[in-house]
Amino acid sequence: MSKSNKVLNLKDKISDNEMDLSLCNLTEVPFKELALFTKATILDLSCNNLPSLPPEFCNLTHLVKLDLSKNQLTRLPDDLGNLTGLQHLDLYNNKLKTLPVSFSQLRSLKWLDLKDNPLDAGLAKAAGDCLDEKQCKQCATRVLKHMQILQDEADRAREKRLLREKELERKREAKKREREAREKEARKREKAEEKEKRRKEYNAQVAAAAAVIQEQKQQQQQKKTEERKSKKKNGQASAGKKSGAVAASKPCRSLLGMLFKLSLLLLLSAAIMIATCRLTELKREDVCLSVDAALDQSLTWARNQEGVFRHLLSDLSGAVKDFLESMQTSKS
What's this model's pTM, rounded to 2 decimal places? Predict the structure, then answer.
C-alpha cells in the first residue's frame, strides 16, 4: 500500500478531532502519517497488536487523549514525557511492568488506567484500582507523584553518577597530571644526567689534553735539561782542555822566557866584554887577546855555518807558527 493510500485511509479514519485506528490489526504505529494530522488531538489505537511505540511517536505533542488499551506493549518510549499536552491515557490490558521516568513530566494528565498490567509492586500500589472515573483520576494523580519521586531519585542518582564520574575524571586527570609530572621529571633527570655525562666527557677530554700538554712540556723541559747538561759537560771538557793547554803552555812559555833571558844576558855580557877589550887599554891583556881570538874564530865559524843557521831559523819559525796555531785552536 502506497503512502498516498495510507494518508487517504487515515482521512477515512478521522472524524472531527478524533483519529480512530482501533481494531486495525496494527503491529506498528504510522507516526509519519499521524504527524500530518495535527488537528486530531484524540487518537484511538486500542485492540491492535502493537508490541511497542517508536521514539518518534513522542513528537505527536498535539495529542490530548490517547487510548492504547488491549495491545502487547511491554514498554513505553523513554521520551513519553514530551507529550506535555496529554490529559487522558488508557493503558489497560498490556504487558507493562514499569513506566519511563519521564512520565512525571505529563503535568496535564488527569486520567489514567493501568489495570491488567504486570506492574511492579511499587507502581501497582501507587496506581490502585481504576474501576470508575474517580479512581482513574486518582490513579493519574498518584502515579504522577510516584513517578515524580522516581524522577527525583533518578535525578539524584544521575547527579551522584555525574559526581562520581566527575570525581573519577578528576582522579584520572590528577593521575594523568601526576604521570605527566613523573614523565617530565624523568625527562628532566635524563637531560640532567646526559648533561652531566657530556660535562664529564668534556672534563675528561680537557684533562687528557692538559696531560698531553704537560707531558710535552715535561719532555721539552727534560730535553732542555739534557741539552744544558750536555752543553755544561762539553763546556767543562773544553775548559779542561783549555786549562790543560794553558797549563801545558805555561811551563813552555816560562822555559823559553828563561832561555831567551839567559841568551840575552850572555850576548849582553859578551858584547860588554868585546867592547871593553876593543875600546879600552885592556885590549893588550891576555884575556882580551883570548876574547879577540875567540871572536875571530866565532865569526869565521859563523860564516862557515851560515846555511846551518838559516836552516835552524827556518825550523824555529815553523815550530813557533805551529805553536801559535795550536794555541788559536784551543781558544776557539
Answer: 0.52
